[in-house]
Amino acid sequence: MPKRRAKQPVRHTALLYVCFFASGMAGLTLEIVWSKYLSYLLGNSIYGVSTVVAAFLGGLGVGAVVGGRLASRAREPLLLYARLELLVGVMGLLSPLAYLLARPLFASLYGAIGGSGALFLLVRFLILFAALLLPTIAMGATLPLLVSAFTRREGDFGSSVSRLYAINTIGAVLGVAAAGFALIPSLGLWKTAAAAAAIDFAVAGAILALKLRGGALRGAAAGETPGTPAGPSSGSLAGAKSAPREAARSAIAGLIIPLFALSGFCALLYEVAWTRILSVPFGGMVYSFSAILAVYLFGIAVGAAFAAVLLKRTSSPALLFGLLQLLLAGSVVLGTRVFASLPDMQATLIAQSRGSASHLFAGEALLTARIVLLPTFFLGALFPLAAAIYQRGRLEPGASVGTIYAANTLGSIAGSVLTGFVLIPALGSLHSLLVAALANAAVGCLALLLGEGIVLKRVIAAFAGVAATIAVSLFAAPTWDAERMSLGFVRLLRAYEFGGEGLVHRIIERIGRSKELERLLFYKEGRLATVTVLETGDRRALLINGKTDATTGSGEDMAQQVMVGQMPLLMAPNAESVCVVGYGSGVTTHAVLTHPIRSALTIELEGSVIEAAPFFETAAMRPLSDPRSKLVIEDAGTYLRSTREDFDVIISEPSNPWIAGVGNLFTKEFYEEARRRLRPGGVFCQWIQTYSVSPATLSTVFRTVSTTFPKGQLFYVESSGDLIILAVPDRELSLDRAAMTAAFSRPAVAQDFARIGVRSVQDVLGAYRGRLDRIALSAGPGPVNTDDNSWLEHRAPLDLITPQEENPLLAWSSQVEADLKASLR
């Protein structure tokens, strides 16, 4: 047997650290790009989101196991790492092509299997898992390979895992920030993917260059064989420098796999629940989600780096693991006590930012850190500790890391699915967090009981952990004021614009305490969003994630909802089949049903909106009970891409485009899908708000719609500041006064119009604002909102934050009058 040699430092350590930092940055950037592409394919429904997360994490878990096995056999793990980076880079470059090829496949799958049910979800997951398998395996395999390379030379397993994990995660933080705040908004998806691929190629090139220059890429010293340690550990993991690797293992080592899988479950639950809670005061903007994810990953990176220090100074990783699990549970509970103050904190932040988007987003990141940073710090430290516990007495470090990583990933998959589908709808975000914290506390107590050291001390420590958990449960559990937690960003912003910061804080103080201000009628945390119904006098409001999406009674949205449903039917008097995107209060669907159509299909993303429908029966008159009415709970883009049904009228009335994901329903590609689903002579109707929208943004909407529907008419609902675009792809859209008058002669139509003060065709024409082709031309050259550039999703939030002047395109003018005369028949 060859004589073992002392450990030697890995050559070019600094360069390898830079490479792993860069691959973390590129990997997270590609993950964001791929997630966006997949949202176009699968939609933003809970089924689509869960499928993406499960498939991606599943591939990473398989990659970790594969990487661990390869690490135990490879003589040059760094060279293999370079090849995997090349593979990831190639897959990144091919992303746009893969997306284009996948669109017809997923559309046909939806139509062939029916678009719902367990079989459809399973088949879709398997296809997506197979598509992501190569790049995610390559990504997941990198950490075990690098750990193997470092520990074969240096032998300090725990510190190597901690440092590498921290460095890679810090790179991921930069990837999130760069992709979310700079690259995608300025370059679009495919160029961002190309930039990430270039980083992967650079990493591979740097390592291969070392090989060409004769740099040592082998993880083993001369005379070693893969899978065999080169000598005694220099760290403390075996208890002492001279102790053999086969030192006695703690009892918890046999349980660390399921325990760390449970920890992964809790970690994903925390991420989902925190994001759901913070999306209400932050407004659900794409930048806010990037800030939340960046803070989450930053905490993990710092915790992993701290674990490197701990592992050099302890011979009891199991006891540390248990203690940190308890501290994690306590920090989660501590963070939940901040929730009640979120509206006040966000109101102060709005006042301090004074219209500066960068100031606002930086403040939101700091606010997120108050809740998230400490728990994620402990989460980051737990991974190296779990790996150290599992690796004791085992020969190959890379395989140990791969197994632990895979276990954590398996738990994360379960967390992503069960949190959205079961826990949050059943328990709510707060109680889901508390249940996960209790699970972490239980793991911590068990680890203390089964860890290293004298039995009596372990029992006392475990008992103290149980006592602390009970004390926190009894005396530190937070409360949840549903009404206060429904104070969304836009409501806070509007109150500030109306009366300043002082007024906002006074309103917040009265929320939930004064029935005169408003009364909570309904509150439900659904699978994708939180739905609230509030009543103020005779005004009822439907809120989704704290933003008002519909009002009835004396509410400002009644005219817009009626007009959006009525106007396209006035333009298409012979329509038989209508599709309505977005249910809201149901008023628009009711307006459609006042006409003699055969069928009205309403597509709604969040099922809890339908649960709130009874509170709007007086205004909406129960449209879903009409035998002509059909409801589908699905993402509208996914449905229209996949259905074989055609329509005479399609009405797109989603939420505001500054909300992440909603911009998907304002892209050129979405309009092309809508056009394909329109019958000859059909009419497409697009709603968009004009308040808090810059002229540049509105011009982009006009240009984008007109690329697919070149002819159309615009109507403006002044009471609510909403614009209705009626457009057609294949003919002139004239205003047929006789047909409109005939529609008004129907009692149901006339009655529906009358409740918003419209009693004649002339009243309707009073809302006219011009021809779409002229207005799009006057908007001049500029961007078109596409799937690739996501222009509207990134620009609309900036418009919302920055005060906007009234758009001159919406004013009555001589050009509008000329358009009206030319369009009347």
From TrEMBL:
Record-linked PROSITE patterns: PABS_2 (PS51006)
Name of a matching Pfam family: Spermine_synth
Substrates-to-products reaction catalysed: S-adenosyl 3-(methylsulfanyl)propylamine + putrescine = S-methyl-5'-thioadenosine + spermidine + H(+)
Source organism, top-level taxon: Bacteria
BP-aspect Gene Ontology terms: spermidine biosynthetic process
Keywords from the UniProt entry: Cell membrane, Membrane, Polyamine biosynthesis, Spermidine biosynthesis, Transferase, Transmembrane, Transmembrane helix
CC terms in the record's Gene Ontology section: plasma membrane
Record-linked CDD domains: AdoMet_MTases (cd02440)
Entry-linked InterPro entries: PABS (IPR030374), SAM-dependent_MTases_sf (IPR029063), Spermi_synthase (IPR001045)
Main location: membrane
Membrane-spanning intervals of the chain: 12-34, 46-66, 78-101, 121-143, 164-184, 251-273, 285-311, 318-340, 367-390, 402-424, 430-450, 459-480
Protein name: Polyamine aminopropyltransferase
Origin species: Eiseniibacteriota bacterium
The gene coding this protein: speE
